[in-house]
Amino acid sequence: MRKPETPKGRILTGDRPTGRLHLGHYVGSLKNRVALQDQYECFFIIADLHVLTTRPEKESIASIPGNINEMVLDYLAVGIDPSRCNIFLQSGVPEIAQLNLIFEMLVTLPRLERLPTIKDMADAAGIEALPFGLVGYPVLQAADILAPRATLVPVGRDNLPHVEITREIARRFNSLYGEVFPIPEPMLGSEDTLPGTDGTGKMSKSLGNAICLSDSPEDVRKLVMQMYTDPNRIRADIPGNVEGNPVFAYHDHFNPNQEEVEDLKTRYRQGRVGDVEVKKKLVTALNAFLDPIRERRRQAEQNPDLIRDIILTGTARMREEAGETMRCVREAMGLTYFRA
Ligand code: ATP
Ligand code: MG
């Protein structure tokens, strides 16, 4: 049996195209991704078919191309470089759907139904009865990962159970039919969660508490000046809490002047600095961080064909790998009869 070649370090990760990316995405995944593209062969998936698992309506599909455009501009803006990685469109790779169908035979329904993530996604989308495709979300994800025979999967902790499903499917396939797939390893990046501007939980577009990478300096100023801080601090001379205060969490992540941050924290705890000063310094730090990102985005926007070219090139490259995978899969399974 033929075993496809896979380089040791091949990465598959990506995003659903649900809109513009924010500082939370930067902290939790994009920053790491920029570093990974120099160390590994990277395949970054624009997972548009995954959007359909919770939002199959035509209006939702109509918003996908615009979202893809914004998202890929954000990728370029933060320094993801298509000459050093492959950015591909999931729906442009029919082999992923073919592999998905085969993988559906290799996992049981109770195994998938036990995953809390699926139920959470259904709840978040206001869905009562689970669509077949939503229960199968982790199977489609296994097809995304194994179509290019990725060996490493950067994910957040909440997604680890899905990578475990991928590993089980790969093992099961290999034991039934022969060694076609590597058993991919999850790769936990930064475990930091950036809080939202409202101080409740994590920054998230859907919660309306996000600062987007493409927000203007004036938007950033407004969002920061309205940020939640320490609710008990009604005057500047009352000692305040730094811990759990999102303004300081952002200072820690985005203000490179550690001395300034430490000084602000000390004075905040002692009641010797007002929220306004702390926020104004954060506005300055955030805009200094975002300025080069905005500039790269602006440059990318100059070329109207750029995003399309990047996606078509990345998708063609992905199809070479996925096609090779499918040839090996069919051969291993003996699914080769009556073909022209
Ligand atoms: P949103 O939650 O803003 O609507 P989304 O649902 O498309 O966007 P998620 O699936 O929540 O995005 O997140 C995608 C990845 O981005 C996560 O795996 C995580 O690594 C990272 N991420 C998103 N938000 C944050 C955050 N606030 N802090 C850290 N990492 C984050
Ligand atoms: Mg989310």
Would you mind describing this structure in some detail?
This protein has 340 residues and is mainly alpha-helical. The protein folds into 2 domains: 10-194 and 304-333, 3-Layer(aba) Sandwich (Rossmann fold), CATH 3.40.50; 217-298, Tyrosyl-Transfer RNA Synthetase (Orthogonal Bundle). The protein contains 15 helices and 5 strands. The strands form 2 sheets. The protein has a 3-stranded parallel beta sheet. Strands 4-5 form a two-stranded parallel sheet. Helix 5 crosses helix 9 (137-146), helix 5 packs parallel to helix 15 (306-333) and helix 11 runs antiparallel to helix 14 (275-302). The longest helix is centred in the C-terminal third of the chain and has 28 residues, at 275-302. The chain is elongated. The chain starts with 9 loop residues before the first strand and ends in a 7-residue tail after the last helix. The protein binds adenosine-5'-triphosphate and magnesium ion. Residues 16, 18, 24-25, 27-29, 156, 193-194, 202-206, 210 line the site of adenosine-5'-triphosphate (ATP).
